[in-house]
Amino acid sequence: MLGTLRPGSTLVIATHNEGKVRELAELFAPLGIATLSAGALGLKEPEETGDSFAENAKIKAEAATAGSGMLAVADDSGLEVTALGGAPGIHSARWGGPNKDFSLAMERINRELEALGTADRRANFVCALALAQPAGETLVFTGKVDGTLVWPPRGTRGFGYDPIFVPEGYTETFGEMDPELKNDLSHRMRAFEKLMLATYADGDDA
Ligand code: IMP
After folding, report:
1. What single-letter DSSP state applies at residue 13?
2. Structural domain spans, the chain
3. What ligand 1 atom has the least distance to the C-alpha of 162?
4. For domain 10-199, which CATH number applies: 3.30.479.30, 3.40.50.300, 3.90.950.10, 3.20.20.80?
5. pLDDT for 154-191, tens place per residue?
6. Whose alpha carbon is nearest atom 9 of ligand 1?
7. Whether residue 95 has its Cβ less than 6 Å from ligand 1
8. Residue 69's CB: how many other CB atoms inside 10 A?
């Protein structure tokens, strides 16, 4: 596996979500790995029929590899709210509705927590990253970041549920935080580090 990714590799990022394309491209670029988005290649998005982040990431990465013949990485991620039994979870994107309006999704979370009358505002983001290979098995790695939810939303950086999520040990939401700091501690970075540890070899150890 070590050496599957190396400086000079090109990867398809199997998502049409601009926020994820940007964050993943920024993680791979310093290692000399170029990225192309599935959208730019005109690849269709498969249906996410899995019942876990890992399965959905695998479905998306394998569809992009099948459509392009290239190595592809897919991210399936979302927000799990403890008092809501882990919702929206793998349905995080769908809670934004057909227009992917995350202010509505954040309002729904707040409404459901208020209806429960709970003071429990614990939540975590999860990310599964799948690397599909044209001739080889698909590898999946997961990362998680714990935190608490605030209301009302704060900050205009990031995407999705970032304005209501404060990571443990910090006071700013992901929506307020410097994007470099978010990238350093995010669920996506934690999954990315595991992926790199298992698959990346630079010129020295390849
Ligand atoms: P997916 O494309 O099905 O994986 O959708 C994941 C959804 O989870 C996104 O549309 C976002 O709403 C949410 N999400 C995942 N990662 C993040 C993040 O880093 N910040 C904010 N929201 C996120």
Report:
1. E
2. 10-199
3. 21
4. 3.90.950.10
5. 999 989 999 999 999 999 999 999 999 998 999 999 99
6. 93
7. no
8. 11
Written as one letter, the residue type at 50 is G
DSSP 45: P
Across the 206 residues of the chain, what is the mean pLDDT of every consecutive 10-residue run?
A: 92 90 91 94 94 97 96 96 98 93 97 97 98 96 98 96 98 96 94 96 70
**Residue that the structure tokens 């309006």 belong to:** 101
DSSP E strand boundaries for the chain: 10-13, 34-37, 72-81, 122-132, 139-149, 165-167
pLDDT at 206: 44
Q: Write down the number of H helices and E strands in the chain.
A: 5, 6
Determine the 3-state secondary structure of 200 from DSSP: strand
| pLDDT tens by residue, 98-117 | 999 999 999 999 999 999 99
Residues 6+ away with beta carbon under 8 Å from 112: 84, 87
Residue 43 is given by DSSP the state P
Q: Which atom of ligand 1 is nearest to the CA of 158?
A: 20
Give the per-residue pLDDT at 204. Answer: 64
- Residue 46 CA to residue 44 CA, distance in Å, equals 6
Task: Record the tokens describing residue 176, joined without a space.
Answer: 């307020």
What b/e string do you get for 113-151 counting C-beta neighbours within 10 Å, with b at 16 or more? beeeeeeebebbbbbbbbbbbeeeebbbbbbebebbbbe
Q: Whose CA is nearest to atom 1 of ligand 1?
A: 76
Active centre residues (catalytic): 76
